[in-house]
């Protein structure tokens, strides 16, 4: 059957019909009054989502471009930075820092383990000359399904006083509490194809007053990603370059949906779906790649020793039209990942678990009683 694809990957995520219909409209001119008034509302709602009164800027980039912009606008060549690295995305920010000639020190943990706040504390406390200019943290490490303790790490950054905290919140924003002002997060980057419930193509960067101070003296080269240009334009409800107008109309729609649902309900929904998914995987005798204490609300990584996970994914796609994500790098074919981020309902989780119960015995994993996965999830949803 065609047209029944269910995306359960951590981006792109499913798009609600109201947003799809918005995308289908004729583009409007980005210098029109109609666009400006829409952009004003979008900007206000982005600040609401970020829990900030400072700037949230929109760029035509993927999530990586948003993080790159969040790095290069506030630093100078040779600046010392600490980068948390416990998965594919943490490794990427190490590479970006190196590509721009920063003095990068990776603070690592094994893939599947959370970053250790004490390691950051030790380095920050030892830095009495205040040479560390920024700490970069991937909040929800999508490659492993681990959520890092941003709040604890950020407390050590605040005690240091000089360093900026730069956050990849691509799969935490809109799924988990990221209170930008309350925590004093200087730069928070995200992308449209994750919690925002629209297709890929827009990146978002929030910038604190402290980060704007650093911007004044930052010397890394920039042009298209110069956030100062976006700040000036955003203040006048316009954009420095041609924006993806249709995506912004769709964003206007989904931000309205998010406001209606409310931040607390959104976070609770992601938490509930995470709990149901994890309970089901345990009941099916599968192992969870991340521990309960550090499990991402957006994505559950499942290890399947002795089974090639690509076989599971291809049967899930063929038999049920459900797309699951695989593992990256050394985890390729060793884990599969269930995305429960954005426009995902409890019903979608039940469908996914039931389908897995059909598929798993076909790849040789049959040491569970049919129905136990669903029962475990039903218990969570019934509470
Ligand atoms: C998806 C994602 C990104 C951005 O990836 P793009 O492909 O550039 O959009 C960055 N960080 C995390 C944690 C992600 O999940």
UniProtKB/TrEMBL annotation:
The keyword ATP-binding does not apply. GO terms for biological process: glycine biosynthetic process, by transamination of glyoxylate. Keywords: Aminotransferase, Pyridoxal phosphate, Transferase. Pfam families: Aminotran_5 (PF00266). GO terms for molecular function: alanine-glyoxylate transaminase activity; L-serine-pyruvate transaminase activity. Residues 28-329 form the Aminotransferase class V domain. It comes from the Bacteria. The keyword Ion transport does not apply. The modification N6-(pyridoxal phosphate)lysine is found at residue 194. Substrate binds at residue 337. InterPro entries: Aminotrans_V_dom (IPR000192), Aminotrans_V_PyrdxlP_BS (IPR020578), PyrdxlP-dep_Trfase (IPR015424), PyrdxlP-dep_Trfase_major (IPR015421), PyrdxlP-dep_Trfase_small (IPR015422), SP_NH2Trfase/AEP_transaminase (IPR024169). Gene3D superfamilies: Aspartate Aminotransferase, domain 1, Type I PLP-dependent aspartate aminotransferase-like (Major domain). Its cofactor is pyridoxal 5'-phosphate. Heterodimer of a large and a small subunit. Belongs to the class-V pyridoxal-phosphate-dependent aminotransferase family. Soluble hydrogenase catalyzes both production and consumption of hydrogen from suitable artificial electron donors or acceptors. This subunit catalyzes the tritium-exchange activity. This is Tritium exchange subunit.
